[in-house]
Amino acid sequence: MKKSFLALALMSAFSGAAFAQSSVTIYGIVDAGFQSLDNGTVAGRFNKLQSGQENGSRLGFKGTEDLGGGLKANFVLEMGLNVDDGSSAQGRTFGRRSTVGLSGDFGTVDLGRDKTPTFKFFDNYDPFASGYINSGNGLSNLYFIGGTATVAGANANSGGRASNAIYYYTPGNLNGFSAVGQYGFGEAAGDNSAGRSLGLNLRYAANGLDIGYSFVKDNGQALAGGPINARKGNTLAASYDFGIAKPVVIYQKVSDDAALAVDQKIYTVGVTVPFDATNKVLATYSNIKDSTRLSAATTATVGDAKQFAIGYQYTFSKRTDLYAAFASTSQDANSQKVGAAVKGADVKELTFGVRHQF
């Protein structure tokens, strides 16, 4: 018994020494609220409690260790949670992010699974920060953000995230310039292109001006020797913070290599208006012009969709806020965007809820 206690004491001492060399943080977001959604289904409107409307609910662990000479080791393990029923999100244990890497004067290199650069791009420029509307996905539900490349015949990415990927982030001392690069392995035997994903962000932010470019390309896994369908998106955004308001414009062109090639252009104008330290209003107007042909036998196209959205946030503290938003989408007869139950259906959504960060 005495030996057991001695061993335990020694283990505790060594464990304490190990933890003293590094830091580990437990963090998370708990977000839930009411959603009323009319997506054109015959049964009528959905009224439900929904998790992760302003931000996806999550539990995360992140840590860093100083290796000396300016070099650090870093890791993040972040799982998605559905507060409304207590289940796991993203269909995997750490589906939001699971990365390990090194950082230093050269920047940061991470290995694993994370948001695509284009998803991160919309987190920065979307007034709704990829939340509030469109079932908590913000403008990223209108634009192509990647995460569609397939790996070994299964969807190992999904939801604007790339698995089996290498990420590079430039250091933060480049006078307002920054970049993010991502390469995701398709892991297909004998074919380095099938299932591969690529991403790039370029950004300049200084003195209120914020200009960015994002590129994303996802290669579909070739089936039975068939061709790879590569889908790509090029996105531009610019905003300026006047203090009393922060307007933004966003443009994206999407195309692919399918037999009926996607030909889509999306435009957004938006604004964030902070009335004071606790109140702010958000608004966007988006126009999707989808010129994708309906079939090889006709020149008819999918057509247009238009969305107007407005939101409000009241901040109680640095950790807790209330939010509300309304979005209305109208579209042409052959368009079926933002979760419409049938082609041509208008979609109207009202949300409000509470978010707590820890």
UniProtKB/TrEMBL annotation:
Subcellular location: Cell outer membrane
InterPro entries, per the entry: Gram-neg_bact_OMP, Gram_neg_porin_domain, Porin_dom_sf, Porin_Gram-ve, Porin_Neis
Record has Transport as a keyword: yes
Protein's UniProt keywords contain Transferase: no
Signal peptide (UniProt feature, chain positions): 1-20
Quaternary state and interactors: Homotrimer.
Pfam family, one: Porin_4
Taxonomic classification: Bacteria, Pseudomonadati, Pseudomonadota, Betaproteobacteria, Burkholderiales
Chief localisation class: membrane
Domain Porin: 7-333
PANTHER family cross-referenced by the UniProt entry: MAJOR OUTER MEMBRANE PROTEIN P.IA, PROTEIN YDDL-RELATED
UniProt-recorded name of the protein: Porin
Classification via Gene3D superfamilies: Porin
Membrane topology field: Multi-pass membrane protein
Alphabetically ordered keywords of this record: Cell outer membrane, Ion transport, Membrane, Porin, Signal, Transmembrane, Transmembrane beta strand, Transport
